[in-house]
Amino acid sequence: MALDRKIAYIDLSTGEIExxxxxxxxxxxxxxxxxxxxxxxxxxxxQGCDPLARGNTLMISGGILTATCxxxxxxTHVMAKSPLTGLLGSANMGGFFAPEMAWAGFHHLxxxxxxxxxVYLWIHNGEIEIRDAANxxxxxxxxxxxxxxxxxxxxxxxxxxxxxxxxxxxxxxxxMTGIKNSAGRTGMGCVMGSKNLxxxxxxxxxxxxxxxxxxxxxxxxxxxxxxxxxxxxxTQGTLGTPFIWGATNSWGGIRTRNFxxxxxxxxxxxxxxxxxEICEETMGPYHMTGCFGCQVHCRAQYKxxxxxxxxxxxxxxxxxxxxxxxxxxxxxxxxxxxxGNHLVDQYGMDNLETGSLISWAMxxxxxxxxxSKDTDGLDLKFGNDEALLEMxxxxxxxxxxxxxxxxxxxxxxxxxxxxxxxxxxxxxxGMSNLHSDERATPAxxxxxxxxxxxxxxxxxxxxxxxxxxPEEVLRKxxxxxxxxxxxxxxxxxxxxxxxxxxxxxENCYMGVDCLCICKYHTTFLGATLPNxxxxxxxxxYNTGLDMTPKEIWDVAERCYNIERLFNLREGLQxxxxxxxxxxxxxxxxxxxxxxxxxxIGATIDRKKFKxxxxxxxxxxxxxxxxxxxxxxxxxxxxxxxPSHLL
Amino acid sequence: xxxxxxxxxxxxxLRKTRTYGKVRCHNPSCMERLQPPAGADHIKCPxxxxxxxxxxxxxxxxxIRGPVWDVNRKLAEDKLASINKSKSKKAAKKGGD
Lengths: 646, 97
Description:
The complex is a heterodimer of chains A (646) and B (97).
Chain A: E1 6-11, E2 17-20, H1 24-30, H2 33-44, E3 58-61, E4 76-81, E5 88-93, H3 97-103, E6 106-112, E7 119-124, E8 127-132, H4 141-152, E9 158-161, H5 164-167, E10 175-177, E11 181-183, H6 188-194, E12 197-203, H7 213-228, H8 231-239, H9 242-251, H10 272-283, E13 288-289, E14 299-303, E15 313-315, H11 319-327, H12 334-347, H13 351-367, H14 385-396, H15 401-406, H16 410-417, E16 427-428, E17 431-432, H17 442-450, H18 471-478, H19 498-515, H20 532-543, H21 549-569, H22 586-589, H23 606-620, H24 630-635
Parallel strand pairs in A: 1-6, 7-12
Antiparallel strand pairs in A: 1-2, 3-4, 3-6, 4-5, 7-8, 9-12, 10-11, 13-14, 14-15, 16-17
Chain B: H1 10-13, E1 23-24, E2 33-34, E3 42-44, E4 51-58, E5 61-67, H2 69-94
Antiparallel strand pairs in B: 1-2, 3-4, 4-5
C-alpha cells in the first residue's frame, strides 16, 4: 500500500542505519512530510544544541501522497534546528526527488551525527549506502547531481544536494534538487554541510500500491480540472510566479531599497511580461515546465541573454528572485535578476535571505554605518547591479569581512556591525522577510510575525484577503471544516477577523505540507482551489486512509503546536525582537510613501496589532505568552510529548 | 467512500463566483471591478482615478501589468502632500512645530 514506505535512521558518526515501518497510529496523528518531521525533530534533537553540532538532527521527507496518482505530490520537506534562527528550521522544495525516494522505499530520513569526511547517501530500492563524496566536494549544485549520475551510471537518479554555500556553512544555504528547486529557507543546506553530507541520491522502481486506483484516477480528473480552470493558475502557467511580484508591486506591497519604499517604480524591465519575453527569446515559445505530477507548469526556462554569464541556462526566476535581486536592492535590470537567480541556484543559497541582507547592507552603506573599508572598496549603493552580483559570490565563499559577516545571517551580523544596524534589519525570528511590504495589510503582517520558521509567506498567509471577496465567500472558506461565526472582513486594510484567517491558513498550509503537495493547489492564491474537504477524497482513494476534513484539521493543528513547542523549548518569547512574534519598528513608525492612493500613509497600528496577536493566540488555545495551555495539549494529544513513539 | 459526481465540495461550489474578463482596481478602498475592452493596453478607474497598464494572459483573461507610472507618481505625491499638510495642522493646534 501507499503507506508502507519506511523511515530510516542514519547515524553519520557511526555509519549505523536502522530502517523501521511507520505505524498507522503515528500516521493518523501526524500524516507525513512536515507534520511527521516536526514530531521527529521534537523527539530526536538534543535540546538547546548548537545547530551545527552533531546533536542536531536533519529530516528529509515526502508526504503521505508522494508519488501516488494524486496531483502535484512533488514536494520534499527538510527540517532541523535552524543555524540561521536558532529555532525551527523547515524548508520545502518541488521537483522530482521525494517521489523517487518513495519509489526507492522511503518517506522519511532521520540523519544524525557527522561524517568524518564528505559523504553522500545512495538510496536504492529499500537499501541505503553511505558513499565517499570527496570528488563531489566543491562542486556546484548541478555539477554535483550530474557527477552522481555519472558515478552510479543512471541518468534517472534524483538527488537533493548542497552547493559551495552549504559547504562553507553559509547559514542560509539551501538543499536543492534539479536546476532551481530549493528547500531554501532557514539554512537546511548549512546543516547538511555541517554533517559533511554533500547529497542524498535516490533511484527507485518499487511499486506503490494505490488503494482504489480507478476512483483515484477518476477523482484526480476532477481535481485537475479544479486546479487548471483557476485564473490564477492559468496566469502562473503563462508568466510563472513573477506575476505575483508584478501584481504586488502594482499596488505598493513590495519593499524597495530595503524598507524605504513600498513600490519599485518604473520597473518595466523586471516585470513578469518582460521576463517572459526573454524566456521566449532564449528558449522558444514552449518554455514553461513543471514539477512531478503538476499541470500548472509555473516554472520558466531561460538562458541569460547578455553579460558575463550570457548563455547560461537556468529556471525561474521565481517572484522571490525578482524581489531579492530587483526590488529590494532597486536594480531594475532583467539580466541582473536572471543572473542573480542563476548564481544562488548554482551556489545553493537562499535567494530571499541573500538579496535581503545585501539590501540591508546597502542601506547601512548609504547611511555610513558601514564604509568602503568594510566592503573592500565595493560601492555598495542601491541600484548598483554589479556590486549586488559581486556580493552574492563573495557571501557564498565568505570572501572579505562584510561577506563573511553577512554569511552568518542578519542578527549575528548586526551584532558584529553594531551601531544602529539592527533597527534597519527587516527580519522576524532571525530570518529576513520576503520582499513584500505588509504595512497596508494587517493580516499579512500578523502572518509574518507569527510564522513558525520566522518571517514567512508560506506558513499562514491569507493571500486571498487581497481580493476583496464578498463576506459570504470568505465565510464559506473560513468556516470549514470547523465552524466560525466571528467577524470576517473583505477589507484587507482592516484588522477584523484577520487572526482567524491566519490561524485557518496555518492549518491549511500544514495540511498541504503533510501531504507534500504544492501550495498552488490549495487556498493560497486562489479562493476556489481545493482544501480539507477535497483532500479527504484524495487521501482515501490513494492510500485507503479514511479521514474526515475535521480530522485533517486536527492533525494540522497538532503538528503546528509541535512546532510551537519546539520553538518555545529553543527560546522563543513573545516580545523578543530577535526570537519572538514581533515586527521591526519601521512597520509602526514609517508610513508607506508609494503605491495605490490609499496605501500611502499606511502603517501598522501598534495597539491593534497587539490585540490581533492576543486573539490569534486565543484561537490556538495558547496563553498570553503564546504558550499552549495544558488543556490545548491534552485536546491535541500532545500532553505526553516527547513520546518517542517512532 | 464513493465518488459523488453531483455533490460539490466547498471549493468547487465557489467556481461559479469566478469572473472573467475583469480586473480589480488595486486601490484598497476602491477595488472597483474594471472590464477592459478586448485587447486594450490600459484602463483608468472611473472611481478613484488610478490608471493601469493591461496585459492579456489569454483573450479572456486580462491582468493589471502595473500602474501608469507618471500618473501613479503624481497621485502619490498629491496624497503625501495632503497627509503632511494635515499633520502640520494637527501639530500647530497642539502647539508643536
